[in-house]
Each structure stands twice: as structure tokens, then as C-alpha cells.
Please model this.
Amino acid sequence: MATSVEVRDLVVERGGQQVLHGLGFTLHPGEITGLLGPSGCGKTTLMRALVGVQAGVRGRVTVLGLPAGSPALRRRVGYVTQAPAVYTDLSVAENLQYFAAVVDAVPDRVAAVLEQVALADRPGQLVQTLSGGERARVSLATALLATPELLVLDEPTVGLDPVLRRDLWVLFRQLADAGATLLVSSHVMDEAVRCDRLLLMREGRFVADATPQGLLEKTGAADIEGAFLVLAEAA
Model:
């Protein structure tokens, strides 16, 4: 199987403390991998290491055949942070037009991604007047402009209503089916069943790397949250 991301012996230190402890894993095209765990367990630090913006990194992180953070990856990797990274004093369309110019996206991509994130009716609205969930969708739209091969999504469904959460997961599946690799973090365990594979984290370490069904069979739990509790207590 082709490999999009290869991580070996990843250690991250911050403020004199080790926050990631020798992690290793691979990601593959066409798969949605869920990165799950409680707040503060290291999910965001791991994602920042993958996109090459985390300090204090040791180990090997290879993304699409190149070292993480390589300039050649800028158009090939889409990253959505927890806090929407958009300009609040610009309209939705102005934000996307700006970022489209940065990544040299084709002209019709702005309209296409607005449709994908269900904001086609809001192009002229100032971002500062949007709800938190709408701002998050603008941020996601900017990450989709270059049609990235790898999407790193940090809590992309926080603040969204159930219908929009469902629709975004349909979009994520469509992107994976088209060959993209997705790493999606969440602390909402019920989103785990939408993933092909799960990485469960606790205190900077993986407590599991398996399919959702494999986790349930291994632990005998009725749901993913129960499986996580079983594995966390055994760690």
C-alpha cells in the first residue's frame, strides 16, 4: 500500500517537558484516519509536527516523500487549525480569493469550495459577522483550494450542528474516495465510526492503532468511548 505520511520515533519537547513520546505510524491515500483523545493529550502538537510548524521536534516525519514542512509541500498539504485562520475584516469570497492567489488555485476553485462547505449563499458576508461554525467552514474552504493530497484537520466539526457535521463527514469521505489522505482529530468519540482507522492518544502516547471494529473486538466494549476507557486504564 502506498504511504502518504511516515512518522518514526517522533518526540516533541516544549518548555523543557516531553509532550510526545516516540510516536510512530503511517498514513495512506484514500483513508480517513481519526486522531482521538482527550483535550491536552497531544493531538494538536502531533498535527503541527506533520505540517512542519512545531518546534522542538526530534525523529523522522516524512510527508508525501519529503521532510515535513518542505516548501514543495505547501500546495500539496491542507491544514485546518482549531482556531479559524481567516481574516475577519474581509468577506468570505475575499478571503478565498486571497488564499487562492497564494496557492495559485484555478479561478473556478473559489465557487467550488464554497459549495463544498455549504457557504455558497454567503460570499459577500464579512467573516466577523459569521458564527464560529461558519468561520470554521471558511477556514476549511481555504485548505481545499489547492485540492491537497493530504488534509490535516484539527477539530473541524467543533461548534457545528448535527446536520452540518454529517454533511462535512460526507465531504471528507468524498475527498478520501478521490485519493486524498485525511487525518482528522476529535475528542468526540462518536465521530470515530466514520473513520477507516483510529489512532487513540493519551498523555502523548498511542494507546491504540486499529479500525473501529477492531477496537471493539479487542476490548469487548459496546462503543468507541468504552474501548478508549478500557485501553486507557490498561495503559
